[in-house]
Specification:
With 452 residues, the protein is an alpha/beta fold. The chain contains eleven helices and 19 strands. The radius of gyration is 21 Å and the shape is globular.
Length: 452
């Protein structure tokens, strides 16, 4: 049996062992999606480097491993999660904690924010918002070539639910803090559903942290519906240790005249793969996709971005930048797809990376696939080192070489950070990025819970 089939069999046993326990606490509609999804997973398996979308990312080190699988948290886990506090200064948000894929609270699993906005456990929401779940859950995924999306649909137990009614504009962001913490090596999966109805506004901040040094694997799926004339921003900040793998899949479906942005900022992580899909499903929709990755040692950061222009007169912009040091590896796989009827499309894509050592590696693959005639599309990618002329100029002004390098790297990275629309978070990211570039930022350095 080859490694790929052996890995598939491993997760078949995992499914058989745990599916009844998962289904017992899930809603009928979510459960109805599980078996077809697992059958699809068994056809596709865990993606290998033979899959073009994973060509430069080998998942086997983390997926061919026996984890202490963790599906139902205990009371002590609830208590520890509720004690967690994020210490970003002046960041005023509606906070939610997610622990090992669960919404852990000893009180309300759903709570109401101003304007009738509901946030909380997806599993709990399925009981009281069944019509909304049936209308949107599992409707926007594009995982025909990615078995991990189907594995999540088959086995994810809980996650975050956010519902913003028509006409409601939330004045401060919703912040989801994803904590992974265990005395054992664990594999966790969570599923998030975000619904932003017509003429509404939501900013969502997701912070990924590990709190203990064990080997962790996360496979997360987030579906987002953005209604007509609505605005949605998602900002993901990742700061995990080198023994953790974070696989995220984000699907954003936009209706007519809506705007949306995604911004993935990866400060730390052993293996990180962020897969982001924007579907422009109505005329006049606009989206922006940003990414910043800072990596060193043997870290591997992969950003896959797909923007699908399905209707006329839509606009999109992609900007991904990275700084790689030591033996780090980065991957950018970006795609703009313009369908036949999507006339008047305007789409841009740019990926720039700086390599600080000869051993750092960056693989970049910008793509345009256009089937319409009246379009304005461009893409480009650069991989290089710091500009020696710029360094010389700064040094000639009395700045030492190391400080000049830091100034150039920070200016390079800030082009992505400046697109964060939450001022307190933007300022904090500037600080953390400079610490990271100086080598002063360790995993979870911005959290009150200090890891050993």
């Amino acid at each position: 049996m080859n490694v790929h089939n052996d890995c598939r069999e491993r997760y078949h046993k995992l499914y058989e062992k745990n599916i009844e326990k998962i289904k017992a606490k899930s809603s009928p509609y979510v459960n109805a999606c599980r078996e077809p999804a697992f059958e699809k997973f068994m056809q596709l398996g865990i993606p290998t480097t033979k899959n073009e979308n994973y060509r430069y990312t080998d998942l086997s080190h983390f997926f061919n491993y026996d984890y202490k699988n963790y599906f139902l948290p205990g009371r002590e886990d609830f208590l520890k999660a509720e004690q967690f506090r994020c210490n970003v200064p002046d960041l005023d948000t509606h906070g939610i904690i997610l622990l090992n894929g669960f919404y852990p609270t000893l009180t309300d699993k759903l709570r109401e924010l101003p304007g009738g906005i509901m946030v909380g456990s997806l599993n709990e929401a399925a009981k009281t918002f069944g019509d909304k779940i049936a209308q949107h859950y599992n409707r926007f995924i594009n995982g025909d070539s990615d078995g991990l999306v189907h594995l999540n649909t088959a086995m994810a137990f809980d996650g975050i639910f956010v519902y913003v009614p028509s006409g409601v504009k939330l004045q401060k962001p919703v912040q989801v803090v994803n904590l992974v913490d265990s005395d054992n090596d664990i594999f966790n999966q969570h599923r998030n559903l975000i619904i932003v109805e017509k003429n509404a506004d939501l900013t969502l901040i997701i912070c990924d942290h590990t709190l203990s040094p064990q080997k962790f694997l996360t496979n997360a799926v987030t579906e987002v519906y953005v209604g007509e004339d609505s605005h949605f921003d998602i900002i993901r900040v990742q700061n995990e240790h080198n023994n953790a793998a974070k696989i995220t899949h984000t699907f954003i479906h936009q209706e007519k005249n809506s705007t949306a942005s995604s911004n993935n900022i990866t400060l730390h992580g052993g293996l990180v793969r962020n897969s982001t899909h924007h579907f422009l499903g109505g005329e006049g929709a606009e989206c922006s996709a940003y990414g910043l990755y800072l990596s060193d040692k043997f870290q591997h950061i992969d950003n896959y971005i797909n923007v699908n222009h399905a209707f006329p007169n839509c606009r999109s912009n992609q900007l991904f930048k990275g700084v790689l040091d030591d033996m780090a590896k980065g991957v950018f796989n970006g795609r703009i797809y313009v369908m036949k009827d999507a006339q008047g499309t305007v789409a841009y894509q740019k990926n720039n990376s700086i390599l600080l050592t000869d051993d750092a590696v960056m693989d970049t693959k910008p793509q345009l696939e256009i089937y319409a005639d009246d379009v304005k599309c461009s893409h480009g990618a650069t991989i290089g080192q710091l500009d020696e002329d710029a360094l010389f100029y700064l040094q000639s002004r009395g700045i030492d070489r190391r400080e000049a390098q830091l100034m150039l790297m920070f200016a390079f990275a800030h082009e992505v950070i400046q697109n964060i629309n939450v001022e307190a978070l933007r300022e904090r990211m500037d600080s953390l990025v400079m610490q990271r570039l100086r080598g002063e930022l360790s995993r979870c350095a911005n959290c009150m819970v200090k890891c050993g």
